[in-house]
C-alpha cells in the first residue's frame, strides 16, 4: 500500500514521516555514503520541507519500505536544480500537469526481486501513475541513470530527454509522460491489477473518489 500525504499534512502524520526520514537516511547516508547528510538522530530531511510536496509512502506491515516525493514544477524552485547547470535549470519544463520526482528510496530487501511481484520499487511506479491520473498530472521529471530509460519505455512511458548538463555525468534528466495505457502496462508487468494508493489527510476527501 502507498499512502499519499501532502506536505501540509506531514506534521499530522509525524510517526509515519519519521519512518520516512529514517529510510531516507539509511539509503542516502549509510548505503550511498553521502556524509554531508549524516545526523546524530539518523534522520535525513530537507532543511525546509515544502508544504506543496506530495509524499508517496510505501508501507508493509506497518513499516515504511519505500518512498518518493513529488514536487510541482510551478513552485519557486525544483529540488534537483542543484544537480544541473544554470543553463539546464532554465530548460526545465514547468506546468500544472508536470511534477518532479525526488528523494526516491527503497529498502534494499524490497527492491526488484526482493519481495516477489509486489516489491516496493515497482509499486511506487504504479503509485506514481495512479496518483497522476487521479490528480490530472500526466508528466514527471526524473533524473536517473540512462539504463532506466529502457525500462520506462517498456512500461509505455513516453520519454523526452532534457538537454541539460548534470554535474553528475552518470545522471540524465528526462521528462516522462504517462496515461492509462502506461498504468495498465505497469499493472500487467507486476501481475497486480488492484489500485495501490490510499489518500490521507487533506487529499482523502477530495481525491479518494478519483482513484483509478
Q: How is this structure best summarized?
A:
This protein is α+β, with helices and mostly antiparallel strands and 212 residues long. It contains 6 helices and 8 strands, in the order βαββαβαβαββαβα. The protein is 30% helix and 24% strand.
Beta-strand segment tally: 8
Number of helices: 6
Note the run of SSEs as H and E. EHEEHEHEHEEHEH
Span between N and C termini? Answer: 14 Å
Query: What structural class do you assign from the helix and strand content?
Result: alpha+beta
Q: Identify the strand order in the major beta sheet.
A: 6-7-5-4-3-2-1-8
Sheet with the most strands, sense and barrel status: 8 strands, mixed
Question: Helix content range of the residues, please?
Answer: 25-40%
- Mean residue pLDDT: 81
Low-confidence stretches: none
CA-atom Rg in angstroms: 16 Å
Q: What is the molecular shape?
A: globular
Beta-strand residue percentage? 15-25%
Describe the structure.
- The chain has 212 residues and is an alpha+beta fold.
- The protein contains six helices and eight strands, in the order βαββαβαβαββαβα.
- Helix 3 (120-134) runs antiparallel to helix 5.
Strand and helix layout:
Layout: E1 2-6, H1 14-31, E2 54-60, E3 63-72, H2 86-90, E4 98-106, H3 120-134, E5 139-144, H4 147-154, E6 158-161, E7 172-177, H5 180-190, E8 197-199, H6 202-207
Parallel strand pairs: 1-8, 4-5
Antiparallel strand pairs: 1-2, 2-3, 3-4, 5-7, 6-7
Helix pairs in contact: 3-5
Which descriptors would you attach to this protein?
eight-stranded mixed sheet, 212 residues, alpha+beta
Amino acid at each position: 500500500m502507498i499512502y499519499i500525504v501532502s506536505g501540509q499534512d506531514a506534521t499530522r502524520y509525524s510517526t509515519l514521516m519519521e519512518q520516512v526520514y529514517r529510510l531516507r537516511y539509511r539509503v542516502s547516508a549509510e548505503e550511498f555514503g553521502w556524509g554531508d547528510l549524516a545526523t546524530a538522530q539518523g534522520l535525513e530531511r530537507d532543511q525546509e520541507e515544502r508544504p506543496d510536496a506530495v509524499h508517496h509512502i510505501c508501507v508493509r506491515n506497518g513499516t515504511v519500505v519505500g518512498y518518493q516525493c513529488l514536487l510541482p514544477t510551478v513552485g519557486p524552485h525544483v529540488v534537483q536544480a542543484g544537480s544541473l547547470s544554470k543553463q539546464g535549470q532554465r530548460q526545465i519544463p514547468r506546468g500544472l500537469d508536470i511534477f518532479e520526482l525526488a528523494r526516491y528510496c527503497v529498502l534494499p530487501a524490497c527492491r526488484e526481486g526482493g519481495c516477489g511481484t509486489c516489491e516496493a520499487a515497482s509499486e511506487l511506479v504504479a503509485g506514481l501513475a495512479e496518483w497522476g491520473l487521479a490528480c490530472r498530472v500526466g508528466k514527471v521529471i526524473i533524473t536517473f541513470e540512462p539504463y532506466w530509460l529502457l525500462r520506462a519505455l517498456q512500461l509505455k512511458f513516453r520519454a523526452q530527454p532534457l538537454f541539460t548538463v548534470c554535474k553528475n555525468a552518470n545522471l540524465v534528466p528526462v521528462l516522462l509522460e504517462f496515461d492509462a495505457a502506461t498504468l495498465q502496462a505497469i499493472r500487467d508487468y507486476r501481475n497486480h491489477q488492484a489500485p495501490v494508493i490510499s489518500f490521507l489527510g487533506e487529499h482523502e476527501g477530495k481525491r479518494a473518489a478519483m482513484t483509478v
